[in-house]
Amino acid sequence: MAGLLVVRVHLDWTAPGHYDRDRSLPCRICGTATRMRDAKGEACHQSCAEDEIARELLGAGQPLIADERVPAPAAQNPEVAR
Hints:
Elements lengths: L24 E2 L6 E2 L11 H16 L16 H4 L1
Antiparallel strand pairs: 1-2
């Protein structure tokens, strides 16, 4: 059975630069209208940006995560080779 790995990201978008009072634009991720802006000033919901970062972190970290329930191959594990 595969384990569950959850990555949660929370961005602090309380700064005024993350909100455009004048106009809504399509979110760069989901396409629905938003007045929220990311750090580059592009239209983006905060939740969409958080999900995007979480997926990137999970993807980058996946190869670094070892499942200790799976034994290492004998060539890499000297204890097994004995």
